[in-house]
Amino acid sequence: MSGQQRSNIEIGMEVEVVQKQDQRTGKLTRGIVKDILTKSANHPHGIKVRLEGGEVGRVKRTI
Fold first, then answer.
1. Which residues contact 25 (CB under 8 A, 6 or more apart)?
2. What does pTM read for this prediction?
3. What are the residues whose beta carbons fall under 8 Å from the beta carbon of 33, sequence distance 6 or more?
4. pLDDT by residue (tens digit) across 18-34?
5. Highest taxon of the source (predicted)?
6. Sign of CA dihedral 2, 59, 27, 30
């Protein structure tokens, strides 16, 4: 599923995000969604979320 649609993302689901400092390399970080930070229904670079570990990034893939 695409990480660009807010409706595809739910709190508690496992996702892979790219953090701000990893945007150039595209390194993905896997974790569980704690908060959804993007308010709009969609975003071309991915919905911004906070993971349970505290990392913040844009969703690239849902697991």
1. none
2. 0.93
3. 9, 10, 11, 12, 13, 14, 15, 49, 50, 51, 52
4. 999 999 999 999 999 99
5. Bacteria
6. negative
